[in-house]
Queue: 3 jobs
Job 1
Amino acid sequence: MRMVSAGDVRIATQSFGTASDPAILLIMGATASMLGWPETLCEDLAGRGFFVLRFDHRDTGQSTTLPPGQASYTVEDLAADVIAILDAYGVENATLMGMSLGGYIAQMVALQHPQRVRSLVLVAAEPLGWDGPALPNIPQEFFDHLSGLQTLDWSDRDAVISFLARIDELCAGPGQPFDAVQARARIERVLARTDSPASMFNHASMTVREDWTGRFREIAHPVLVIHGEDDPLLPVGNGRAIAEGIDGAEILVIAGMGHEFPDPMLARIAERAATHAQLRQR
């Protein structure tokens, strides 16, 4: 574990593997800490010859956390955090592997700092600045559940765990039965690493400063899209839109996978991501 400074913000990071190996920087989605990246996936990628970095976004885990409702940063600020991490580790360029919002951020970094990016792996992501017909998006059932934040008692640990576990369940695909016990255990680990778990939902108020309309089409890096065929949160049409809009992009659609990293599919995801990154080391 290592703390990295990004201006006035401190970002908690963790590395796997050998620093001299090509780097893969993992960028998690909204409200998620580094624990959203399964440790087995990180170790698998490191075992395939990569220096793997994961980190806590602002307002998650052990990174700088502001009180609920008091954050004013933008998505561009989270993109700047990525560059600060690369700088701190002395990484000239890296494959960026982003999940959901992390994939959105990865596209932004590739456009703002093209020389720092070797390639992109975009998991369960949407296109940055989509300018076509409306894409299938977050279902009403998910928003209905989030409305419970207004009355959630954050001092009631069991209620908090149940609320967050329901989010995991709403994101799960049909490829395997939802494991509530495993979900609750992971959430316990998440809660143990932050003094203000409610602050993770500061991400819901984030905006962008710049106009990114259509900009994802300008990405010139090699891109691999990985998307669950049964993603209930950002349906697979989003991943297909990225792959169709970026010249030369590849796409892997995984049946039974939702907006998640199912254990039985981790080895396949690691193998495909590593193969993509290995081909793009130069």
Job 2
Amino acid sequence: MSNYQVKELITEGFKTVYCHGGETNAETLIFLHGSGPGANALSNWKKALNALSSKYQVIALDLVGFGSTELPADLNMTFWEWTTLRVKQVLAIMDHYNIGKAHLVGNSMGGVISLNAVMHSPQRFDKLILMGSGGGKTSGPTPEIVRMTGFFNDPTIESFGNLIRWFMYDETVLEDDINDIIRTRYENIMRPEVRELYPKLFPKNPAEMLIPPSALRRMTNQTLLIHGYEDQFVPREGSLSLLEHIPNAELILLKQCGHWVQIEKSDRFIQLVDQFIDQRNHQLALI
């Protein structure tokens, strides 16, 4: 049984689909998924939403360009314009529920959006949890990222299955679910409108993903960086770079873990999120 509901809301002129639970709880966690092929809110955050909705209001949206959220009328946007539109999606949902300030949990591209949200409206966001986040400097795109962004150069189910498995250090943690995930996400990304749009969602210059150090050092938010040590899509150097510039940041590296910490190390991830958000209470318990 799910502890959340799937809902719809008109944001910026198009319908956003999102998961919502724990509405009566005082603090709000907003979960932002990555840009992997076929990504959406549920594929990234299902277990975390169920576990954390008993204590927090939880919201996970299908970011525009992904999942079941409608596409805007104008698709001719730069990467930065897509990013700003996704930030406005988040703010529209917050306004709908009269949420003055929320915590952000961002995975990969969701981390980039989280950091841009803080630049856009710093007064609306409190703590940041960035998991396998983009935005930090690395030595350049990995072969796995090149295969992902160029997926439609060879859009077979076999190629897609390999790509999904590469997101993890050990896909056997998903047991039989891995084949269902591959099939469902493949069906999604092969939809004609998605197939045409997906390659356009990435910047032509990978440096556009980077958050300027001048911006990072001005972010006073308490920030928890979580990274799979064996992440082959966003190398751990990216989080080390963010750690260098964000003043109030800490980093946790998890061995035998790839890009999907929330799936491969789900129990540990949920524990880390809860401890970090509820840090004051945990500190009191130690006294």
Job 3
Amino acid sequence: MKRMNRARIVVLTVAICAGGVAAYLASGSDNSAPPPAAPVAQLPTVDVLVAKNDIGLGQTVKPEDVQWQTWPAATASATFIRRNERPEGVTQVTGSIARAPFIQGEPIRDQKLVKAEGSGFMAAILPTGMRAISTEISPETGAGGFILPNDRVDVLLTRRLKNPDPSNGAPDIVTSEIILANIRVLAIDQAPKEKDGQNTVVGKTVTLELNPTQTATLSAARQSGTLSLALRSIVDVKMSEITLDDSAQRRDGVSIIRYGIPSSTAKAR
């Protein structure tokens, strides 16, 4: 009888202890609150004027073409138009002509805009000190129509030099040389940009962006022979102009220029 009472007491004690532990754990889980979230660092921002829609080359900027957009201050270039510095930015750029195209969301920069002030489109987009000069081309001399406005080209002059003494039977000499390198194409005929995404523009004239010295060179070359355009890769448009070796041998024909180095000649009759 005493053993049974002791057993009951032990079982009851164990049950009471287990219940107490469970109650403690339950009360602890109910009262415990999740740790507070770490505060999120707020990056400094600035309002920047951006293109609300695509703005094409030569397009006049209207108020509805631009808008203010929040931009991380650390990545905002000094060339961007900031609201805290130029609160009248929308008014200031309205009426300007896009010297280069903008895509939607691109920050507006003064370097890509010009105030026409009554000038024509071509005069407006020409950089200071540069000239626009046109010359005749054909599919054969214009890279088959694959040259587009804003491409870069080399201008080649090809001349046929008659044999001063035909009696000796020597053939005429044909020479070809690069007279202008890395020249920007402003327009093909009257088209300052490609239309509807076309990848060829066949025209009869090309308008080039030249400085005054280059303008004189081109004008003289047009009277000396046939001009043709060589399209440059988009990769090397920023390369410095090719320096030609005046000592290139041209006595027997055409100087072939590879990578800026006159390398060989060929006879022509």
